[in-house]
Design brief:
InterPro entries: RibonucZ/Hydroxyglut_hydro. This protein is mainly beta. Helices cover 0% and strands 34% of the residues.
Length: 41
């Protein structure tokens, strides 16, 4: 489960925590993380 580092303690099961501005490789594609605070509250 991939999720926000900010919500790591709030969302059970997150095993990959990412923050704004980080990049993450998936299936040969580079993804840029864009944080949207408050979106899930």
């Amino acid at each position: 489960v991939i999720g926000s580092r900010i919500d790591k303690d709030r969302i059970p099961g997150i095993d990959i925590a990412l923050s704004d501005g980080e990049t993450w490789m998936f299936a040969g594609h580079k993804a840029l993380v864009i944080e949207t605070p408050g979106h899930t509250r």
